[in-house]
Amino acid sequence: MTISDKLRAKIETRRDDLIALTQDLIRIPTLNPPGANYREICDYLDHRLLHSGFETELVRAEGAIGDSDKYPRWNIVARKAGKTSGDCVHFNSHIDVVEVGHGWTTDPFGGQVKDGKIYGRGACDMKGGLAASIIAAEAFIAVCPDFAGAIEISGTADEESGGFGGVAYLAEKGYFSPDRVQHVIIPEPLNKDRICLGHRGVWWAEIETKGEIAHGSMPFLGDCAVRHMSAVMREMEESLFPALAQKRTEMPVVPEGAKQSTLNINSIHGGEPEQEDDYTGLPSACVPDRCRMVIDRRFLIEENIDDVQDEVRSVLERVREGRSGFDYDIRELHRVLPTMTEQDAPVVSSVAKAVDEVFGRAPQYVVSPGTYDQKHIDRIGRLHNCIAYGPGILDLAHKPDEYVGIDDMIESAQVMALALQDLLGK
């Protein structure tokens, strides 16, 4: 029996352990926002990985965006050194999950097993991937105890809200520096036979239109900021959205619709604030003097961030030219540049070889429509040998009745273990 056969067999024998581990992780409701139960899940992982022979470190991202005494941003980094020197392979998974939402037919934090699937918020995105990486590492250590180099596993905070209390903080502290870590695999749910090389860029901005408050019975004495915002939206519909639809990328972005530039209107707020649920009165009669819109612009590697911003400002200036009394402010909320690892990078080659062995076919190379923590490893850590690979179907992320397939986790764990053997087992 070859080492590859032994690794695959060892993971298969740990099926029940993989299921139980995934269920335990799902049952810790690490909702973000606000960032609940991060310490609880880090303590759970700490106990598990210490038992498996890892040295562990719990790191609070003090002072990072989102960190507070009520909701501290805890992360765990575990390291298992090999018998001799060599490269370090790091598996990074985020521990936070998004809000539950409506429409569930199963308990979002029950970890129910049904028809070969484990259900729950975060099952797909990405506690199933975290569990698979742990099982893969443990199986590799059991079969190849004399490996060279090191294996690291991290559980990090806040990926769903930008990752600043997680991977960004750790990268700033040197945890992803190229002299410490050489290969990074992020088990995001991009489908088990795909290798994700990177992601599109993102630019978030808030646009505010200005008006003048007046009595609602005499709107002619004021200036309605909401109407001004409607003119902005009309100009976007007529000029910006059609222009974005014409921009196409050579990046292998999935799904197909994300191969073009996109813009999402994330929210609009105008007029007086919404009252508490127990308020039973009517709103006051006022002309709104402010209206705010948050936009989420996703852009391609062929685009320049300055041009992306100028397109939006051009929309606002065209409205100003044709609309009396129009005034606005715009401020940037967030930016991430596109990134894409080369197909011949070492971690890509090793995972591709493992995918071919497990599935009998070459992987599909893709790029994510949205960003994930590769952005911080690339830009802050200066580590470009990084990919996303893990179990789960991307389209299920953030949906009701989210699930991860058990067989998908087993096969993905086998791929991860074989990649470890290729990178460290020589």
Automatic annotation (TrEMBL):
Enzyme class, top EC level, equals hydrolase
Q: Which domain of life is it from?
A: Bacteria
| Parts of the chain that traverse the membrane | none
Q: What is its EC number?
A: 3.5.1.18
- Give the required cofactors: Co(2+); Zn(2+)
Task: Could you list this entry's UniProt keywords, alphabetically sorted.
Answer: Cobalt, Hydrolase, Metal-binding, Zinc
UniProt protein name: Succinyl-diaminopimelate desuccinylase
Source gene? dapE_3
